[in-house]
Amino acid sequence: MGIIDIVIFSVIAGIAVIAFSMQLNAPFREFPFIGIAAFVTQFVYMVAYYELFSILYATLFSSIFLTIISRLLAYNRRLPITIFLIPGFWPIAPGAIVYKATLCFINNNLLSAQEFVLLSVQVAGAITVGISFVYVIPQKFFNVNIPLLQLNRNGQFYE
Amino acid sequence: MEKLEKHEQHKELVLAMKIGAMLTTCGAEIRRVETTMEHIIQSVEGNVAHCHCTPGSVIATVSYAEGSSKTMVTRIGTKNTDFKKIIRLNELSRKYSKKDLNYQEALEELDNIQNMRIPPLYLRSMLNALSCAAFTFLFTPTVANVVASLIIGFFSMMSYEKLFEKLPLSPFMQTLFASTIITTMTFGLFELGVGDSVNYIIVGSITPLLPGVETINAVRDIVESDYLSAVSRILNAILLGSAISVGVAVVCLLVKYFGG
Description:
The complex is a heterodimer.
Chain A: H1 3-23, H2 31-52, H3 55-77, H4 82-89, H5 95-106, H6 110-135
Helix pairs in contact in A: 1-2, 2-3, 2-4, 3-4, 3-6, 5-6
Chain B: H1 2-5, H2 11-25, H3 30-41, E1 48-54, E2 57-63, E3 69-75, H4 83-97, H5 103-114, H6 121-139, H7 143-166, H8 171-191, H9 198-206, H10 212-223, H11 227-257
Antiparallel strand pairs in B: 1-2, 2-3
């Protein structure tokens, strides 16, 4: 898969997450920034996956980048990090793996089902480690003013 | 709570409880709820606040300067993630702490936030259709599957939201029914010749049902050492994930049994 394909997939992930965040009643003015968080997450996931051929590493790196971009956006947009972190998580959620595990159970293929269940637990663990890894870094390291991310903002930053 | 509201001394406690309960309902993480409540109560000089929050309840104790103390407990009902409410509650608490708002104005603002409208069902269904189609594209980028997901995303949400309006169910049962409806629609459309990969259409269409808010908040609670609420949220996420699996599995088994 070429870089153009990865960019297209990442843009689609951004659109999916924007549409989804509208259902969570996210503010209209934050949609482009939620889309950026999802784009970065999917882009890092796909690049890491096609370079390392590991779902675990891809999830780990993408969740690290998602948390970094969410913390930067939270500071620059003067909003709680939740607004960017939660929707950005959706492209890397292990939904397909859980579905495959269910299918294997139905087909009485217990060995494969067990593997998929373990993989989904590992992916969830990778997301946890990725978010925790960035989350323990003090906020002052993310207090970087990026003018592009401050367009059309209001409010005041509360850590 | 109404009785306490009449006492001048307890008004910060009452306001903090109302805001804390609403924040928890809207999907805020535990640390945010606790610090917000403490900010409000301690906005009065001499007050010392101790707040404890779990996904199911909010507890706050305030020790007043003259030596007395008061504790309140509120039970949290149905949760409904709403980012706009979180943002406005956050701003409200900070303005109140800085004395930019008085008690009456804060209560009025709280009422406004409580009565904020959510988008209408048809719009939410259209957005759900768009996100389902986009997620399906990520798994299998073919026009037929994307169109199938668009149709399923729109009509499934219209049907299960209408059903839940008339039939109040627990979140577990709601998720189970929703995934059952999605899977049934997918097989129905596939029989009609729309879509070429049942598996990926189902995966794309159930993605918006995944318990992402609970999972992310659980991770954040672990990082903040709020293990009680983290365990509660993880359990909730596992239950909702299982409900999705069971909903899909039941329909797949029926289709398999009847030779689909």
